[in-house]
Write a structure and sequence with these properties.
Number of helices of chain A: 10
Distance between the termini of chain A: 23 Å
Oligomer: homodimer
Number of strands of chain A: 9
Shape of chain A: globular
Structural class of chain A: alpha+beta
Strand content of chain A: 15-25%
DNA sequence: CGCCTGTTTGAGAAGACTCAAAACGGGTGG
DNA sequence: CCACCCGTTTTGAGTCTTCTCAAACAGGCG
């Protein structure tokens, strides 16, 4: 079996004891494979499960009374999703797979036991949740206060930063398996305006495109102009207590 | 001394054992009183403290490269703030007091110890964080996909819902101690457009104003038109393990 | 009473939206 | 292997919402 993505993620922030590693192993249950566009969870429908993204990409969206849609976030391997079902029993958003992906199920109660038995993992999850909330603040700021070019740039930069977490080297181009409609729903623009704005960015030499592939040409400039900060990097875990001797010995 | 607001908040979601109550008592340290507009934390400056809002109102904002500002959230009594410093050592937003308020300090390390010793409190904090994240998704959706009237309505309805948590009865009017600039920064509009939009809402009989006081006249209609859902209410804690007998006995 | 901050109003401009049609491209079936 | 089809992207024209700049107005405080 593939290495559990959540374990990898947590390990990246905190050295794990073997007891903690074992606890994580039992956490992820049945796996599910999703095809592009397949939904994992539907807004307003009962739901009491969480999922760990193991492979691929998924997005979380909300549909409005007027039929419009807002994508509130993207989730990658190692992300714990459906956290809104931690607080409620009805899903607050629709989660859809972008491309092919694999997720594993995880019962809420199992998470509760994990909080009790492995407080350091709980604390790390809390830190990750805090970081995600900051990232969402970035998106809110972008949608609320920036123009179309900046919003799209920010989205591209964020995807780039995220890809670099896994793909060691310095990536500067990638396939964007999203329609312009999806992109617009994420940054708060219509698909038509997304098309025009991409055109403008290309004309200005900021990016280049061919098919679904996007190459970021002026990363430095885009970063300066949007004030982009990578939130996918290191997060502080120094405030988390050291493991107890017994656990560490294992 | 006043009852600790965080204790009250947690108790509202989960019956606490006396051991848990004791742990919370030692958590909140020195108190700070803030005057209107006083800042508690400044974006990009080192920070390794958390705060609990004990009384009043505070907001959390981000300033952009172009000088614009986005208010990413409001925090009320019982909220744990500065959670971004859980993940980083630099503050990601500027926290400013709306009106007079009282907060108490809380060291990150103390939170770490609390996660270890009182896992049920940790789990409840996690659930609250999940709920906050959903609330932020609401704001993102509103700013990304709604018109000016809807955005303002949503903000008013949210404040109303929040006030009702504390003020038992059915409130339908309140003092808004925010300038229209602040309101605009929260919903992604200019202050000029906020003024016009309030004017329009008044003309349409949706609200009435006199001075800083706002009265919501057509709550039903506003709720329907925006799809507002109150996120301040109950959150699920059924997934949190029951306390151990020893702790419960105390 | 005057000052300062915040609100309102007006006029014009810019950005993003709508509707509509044409171009593109990948996938399927003949 | 080609032709067609569907979803997506691009382009155009005109409109609407929101923004900018500017000035007048209100209200609370020293």
């Amino acid at each position: 079996m593939r290495r559990d993505a959540l374990t990898t993620r947590l390990e990246q922030h905190l050295p794990l004891t073997s007891s903690e590693r074992r606890a994580l192993e039992t956490l992820a249950q049945r796996e599910r494979r999703l095809k592009p566009g397949e939904t994992l969870m539907i807004q307003d429908q009962p739901n009491d499960q969480l999922f760990i993204v193991q492979q691929g990409w998924v997005h979380s969206a909300r549909t409005l009374v007027n039929g419009a849609r807002q994508i509130v976030g993207f989730h990658y391997a190692g992300d714990l999703i459906g956290t809104s079902s931690i607080a409620w029993t009805i899903a607050t958003n629709t989660v859809t797979s972008v491309g092919d992906s694999i997720v594993s199920e995880l019962a809420k109660a199992a998470l509760g036991r994990m909080f009790e038995q492995e407080p350091r993992l709980a604390a790390t999850l809390y830190a990750i949740a805090a970081a995600d909330s900051v990232a969402m603040g970035d998106r809110l700021t972008s949608v609320g206060r920036m123009g179309a070019v900046e919003r799209l740039s920010l989205m591209l930069l964020d995807i780039l930063a995220r890809l670099r977490v896994t793909a060691g080297g310095i990536v500067d181009s990638f396939d964007l398996p999203l329609t312009q409609q999806d992109i617009g729903d994420a940054v708060g623009l219509t698909k038509v305006h997304v098309s025009r704005t991409f055109g403008e960015m290309e004309r200005r030499g900021l990016i280049a495109r061919s098919g679904r592939r996007v190459r970021v040409l002026q990363e430095r400039e885009l970063t300066a102009m949007t004030g982009f900060i990578d939130r996918h990097g290191v997060i502080a875990t120094d405030w988390i207590p050291a493991p107890h001797a017994t656990a560490e010995a294992a």
